[in-house]
Amino acid sequence: MTTKISTLLFASFLASSSIAQAGVVVGGTRVIYDGGKKEASIGLENPDSSPYLIQSWVENEAGQSDKSSFIVTPPLFRLDGNQKNTLRIMQANGALASDRETLYWLNIKSIPTADPSRSDNTLQLAVNTRIKLIYRPQALKNSTPENASSALKWTRQGDRLSVNNPTPYYINFQSVSLNGRPLEKVTYVAPHATAFFPLPSDARGNQVEWKVISDYGAVGAVHKTSL
């Protein structure tokens, strides 16, 4: 999950200025769309007293806006203080792969409202929460990425560690280490694809350990193999 912050209003940033940040809570770190169902959903909560404008949209894996594959409703609405609401995600294009998962990104932007009662200079920020939206075909419902991750094949290639994923699932890593040395910037490996992660210059040994993030955002058990 990533968060992007964009400036909505900047009024002569003085020593007396204050910062107002969006406080909307997203009810999950990812959305798994079951291909056998008509929709998926995720909850939102505004614990603040002030309302926020919520704008939502879907991007493809490359980060480009994609309005043809999924529809998010409501796409734009006001979420009042101390209130909850639910975003519904519906598939618009039925031509997605049926033998493997497909990755999209769900963007949820929280835009704060201006407070007319305040006289001081205020910097207001819109916070964009970006989480994975994974389409899982109905044919894959009998297993999980956690179970499938034992089939991963690891290889050292110079200053990089490669991982080949022969499974139809996106495998999202919480951590990867070589001989107990944690690797930085580990992300995920796509179905039937290979990903590469940089190794520290002094990395040694051949014992690889990794942990996978589950459908619910929890961290699974340690998996181990030798190169």
UniProtKB/TrEMBL annotation:
Q: Which residues form the Pili assembly chaperone N-terminal domain?
A: 23-140
InterPro entries listed in its UniProt record:
Ig-like_fold (IPR013783), PapD-like_sf (IPR008962), Periplasmic_pilus_chap (IPR050643), Pili_assmbl_chap_C_dom_sf (IPR036316), Pili_assmbl_chaperone_bac (IPR001829), Pili_assmbl_chaperone_C (IPR016148), Pili_assmbl_chaperone_N (IPR016147)
- List residues of the Pili assembly chaperone C-terminal domain: 163-219
Which Pfam families does the entry mention?
PapD_C, PapD_N
Specify where it is mainly localized: periplasm
Top-rank taxon: Bacteria
Q: Which residues form the signal peptide?
A: 1-22
Transmembrane segment boundaries: none
Q: Which UniProt keywords apply?
A: Chaperone, Immunoglobulin domain, Periplasm, Signal
Q: Where in the cell is it found?
A: Periplasm
Q: Of which family is this protein a member?
A: Belongs to the periplasmic pilus chaperone family.
Which PANTHER family does the UniProt entry name for this protein?
Answer: CHAPERONE PROTEIN CAF1M (PTHR30251:SF9), PILUS ASSEMBLY CHAPERONE (PTHR30251)
UniProt-recorded name of the protein: Fimbria/pilus periplasmic chaperone
This protein's species is Scandinavium lactucae
